[in-house]
Amino acid sequence: MQHLQPHATTCCKACTDRSMRILCDLSGQARIDFESLGMQMRLPKRSIIFQEDDSCDAATIICEGQVKLSCTSREGKTHILKIALPGDLLGLGAAISGTRFEVTAETIEPAVVKKIRRHELLAFLEKYGQASMLAAKALSEEYKSAFFDARRLALSESTAGRLAGVLLEWGRAAVGCSGADMSFTMALTHEELANLAGTSRETVTRALGKFQRDGLIEIQGSTFRVLSPSGLENLSS
Amino acid sequence: MQHLQPHATTCCKACTDRSMRILCDLSGQARIDFESLGMQMRLPKRSIIFQEDDSCDAATIICEGQVKLSCTSREGKTHILKIALPGDLLGLGAAISGTRFEVTAETIEPAVVKKIRRHELLAFLEKYGQASMLAAKALSEEYKSAFFDARRLALSESTAGRLAGVLLEWGRAAVGCSGADMSFTMALTHEELANLAGTSRETVTRALGKFQRDGLIEIQGSTFRVLSPSGLENLSS
DNA sequence: AGTTTGCAGTGACCACGGTCACACCCCGGT
DNA sequence: ACCGGGGTGTGACCGTGGTCACTGCAAACT
């Protein structure tokens, strides 16, 4: 839960309600209207918000808790794209272009989300031009995150390198929001980390072991701390 | 050049000027205004439209020719995300969110493009709410293409599978626009195909050889034809 | 208590594919 | 005609990392 904010924005710390990151630039009536949209709900761990290939009837904002975005191949192999955090807006692309979801969203801790029905969202965007621009910005963030995902998979030499990249990213995110030390609590199993880094469970175990032995990271229970960012950086190449 | 249209839209064939795919839904004055934007230019093969980490001063529409979108790691390894085709709008995300380009765009054949300065584009989007929505749609396409890229890299068993996925995609694109046979002209070298599929040049050569021997594809000079879509499909898993 | 279930750690094995080393071919230049 | 260079085809080698098969370990249930 204190694992935080990947792409920090200026408003991040200031906003008491983190569900409104996208809104920080909305003004006046638009903001008021937006807040009246949608309905908030509280979800237990492991609940599916939406699924790959479902048709999109609503976008959802994460208010609290982490959400795993993944997709699955016919053979049952699954790939985790990213862990979405409070403030992220899921399914925006599908809602806007009226297509099906490409990914499955599942909570990995108890979470609070706000669902906004597609037609309400569209009507809102229709009404406020500035909001459309913000939506476009949000989409371009979504794009970048997919892009960096692909880039990490494609451009790192070793599998350990990809893992290092993921840890580094999270360490940096932690700095952006909480204390100055790059530590965060890991809500994923080794298996899930493997799916995220495109490798196998065993390799993750071994790599994490090696990272510790090499003094790159420190693990105590489920809290990770990055000791040598530059070391990880080198590996992730 | 007759290699065509990846995500076909209804307007694709009807538009005489393919540079306006994004505009097909624009109406009246907005459309007229848009056409007056930007400036068209003709580029030789191998010219760089923009580069990774350049700050974005303009988005560009491809009117003719294929454009390679790639990114490079510190070690000099390069990954090709996709081959952009006439009708694609490049750098939209960077233009809207005011960030740097994540990729390098380079023509692989003589091309005609239209550059639209960033502030003109923003002013236009500001003025026409509907256009912002279309921009958002275009961005969501961009997102999907990055997503499928990552998905292909992550979820296919073999390297041959990834290559099969790429060929299949292009074969399907060809059907969408030209004749009913899945044939297209390959403008990439094996080396480039390797960078696209995340493998090595030699492996591409061998895989293509095997695909032919297995009757999955047919290669004559630089024209490829997909004979067994289902066969490729199985491999790409 | 005991049992079950899910996650983490570790060794052994071996295949896929990256790398290096060639030979060949086509085309363009001088 | 000669060369040179870029692209392609192919063999041999061997390291990374996926897979399998276990063993611990801790929390959850009965």
Molecular structure report:
Two copies of one chain form a homodimer. In chain A, the strands form three sheets. The first copy, chain A, has a four-stranded antiparallel beta sheet. Helices cover 42% and strands 22% of the residues of chain A. Chain A is globular, with a radius of gyration of 18 Å. The model of chain A is unreliable at 1-20 (pLDDT under 50). Chain A has helices at 28-36, 92-97, 118-127, 129-155, 159-177, 190-197, 201-213, 229-236, and strands at 39-43, 48-50, 58-64, 67-72, 78-84, 89-90, 104-107, 111-117, 183-185, 217-220, 223-226. The first copy, chain A, has two domains: 18-154, Jelly Rolls (Sandwich); 157-236, Winged helix-like DNA-binding domain superfamily/Winged helix DNA-binding domain (Arc Repressor Mutant, subunit A), CATH 1.10.10. In chain A, α5 crosses α6. Chain A is of the alpha+beta class. Chain A is built from eight helices and eleven strands. The longest helix of chain A is centred in the middle third of the chain and has 27 residues, at 129-155. The first copy, chain A, binds a DNA duplex (30 and 30 nucleotides) through α7.
Walk me through the topology.
Two copies of one chain form a homodimer.
Chain A: H1 28-36, E1 39-43, E2 48-50, E3 58-64, E4 67-72, E5 78-84, E6 89-90, H2 92-97, E7 104-107, E8 111-117, H3 118-127, H4 129-155, H5 159-177, E9 183-185, H6 190-197, H7 201-213, E10 217-220, E11 223-226, H8 229-236
Antiparallel strand pairs in A: 1-8, 2-7, 3-6, 3-8, 4-5, 4-7, 9-11, 10-11
Helix pairs in contact in A: 3-4, 5-6, 5-8, 6-7
The structure holds a DNA duplex (30 and 30 nucleotides).
